[in-house]
């Protein structure tokens, strides 16, 4: 049997500040070490904005995880690029080479158009990675993969839920996953990544990234239902199949066991006994 073709790449990246760059650009002449520069910049940001998240322009990718998904939305595989080395230049190059190798499948992210993709583009600039296919400078603007509204090339689920930023989605990925009964944020939070990186805990960062990709995948499935591309029944079957896939890989990738142990339940109101005045199902409404 031939392997199912990869139609979607659901992805997430984690990044950390380039301390040498922060020292050189933000604090020239102060002779700060990379770690000292990062600490000083974070303190400045916290005092001014009540958030110490350093802008992506000062950051490099330190973990990239991708879920390969078939056209029928079945989870095929979930991989951490360049594990266990996590070399930023290799992470960057292999992400884009993988996109080309799988014949440019649709990228799927949660807020990736605002952060993940710009960071990967900037990393490509930094490391000299060819992105001719992604930019497609000879194509019409609306056909270029990186065009903001080209959802065939990049489906940003945050854009779907906010109408491309017309509304605010407070709660982010964690809230969207929790609505569906999925774990959302567990032991690690995004603001902890820099400290984990400074401590050399790259495996822990990648485990966190794996869980974010899983949450994004399940949000993607429900979004497909909302967009009329998948029935609710089929979505629930894909969720069950993914759960079985995780069970099968939990021995070799322990974070999957932690994810499964935190798995909740989505309450399906359509499965409840009929009330005195029955509420039509989505299928009945569509008829």
Describe the structure.
It is built from twelve helices and five strands. The chain has 287 residues and is of the alpha/beta class. Strand 2 (59-70) and strand 3 form a beta hairpin. The protein is globular and about 70 Å long. The mean pLDDT is 93.
Secondary-structure map:
Blueprint: E1 6-17, H1 19-26, H2 34-49, E2 59-70, E3 75-80, H3 88-101, E4 106-109, H4 116-127, H5 132-135, E5 154-156, H6 157-162, H7 172-179, H8 193-198, H9 202-226, H10 232-249, H11 255-261, H12 282-286
Parallel strand pairs: 1-4, 4-5
Antiparallel strand pairs: 1-2, 2-3
Helix pairs in contact: 1-2, 3-4, 7-9, 9-10
Give the mean pLDDT: 93
CATH architecture: 2-Layer Sandwich
β-strand percent reads 5-15%
Looking at CATH, the homologous superfamily is Ribonuclease H-like superfamily/Ribonuclease H
* Number of separate helices: 12
In CATH, the topology is named Nucleotidyltransferase, domain 5
* Beginning-to-end CA distance, first to last residue: 37 Å
Query: Using DSSP, what is the number of strands?
Result: 5
SSE topology string:
EHHEEHEHHEHHHHHHH
Tell me, what is the CATH class? Answer: Alpha Beta
Percent of residues in helices comes to: 40-55%
Keywords:
single chain, 287 residues, alpha/beta, Nucleotidyltransferase, domain 5, 5-stranded mixed sheet
Task: Provide a concise account of the structure shown.
This protein has one domain: Ribonuclease H-like superfamily/Ribonuclease H (Nucleotidyltransferase, domain 5, 2-Layer Sandwich).
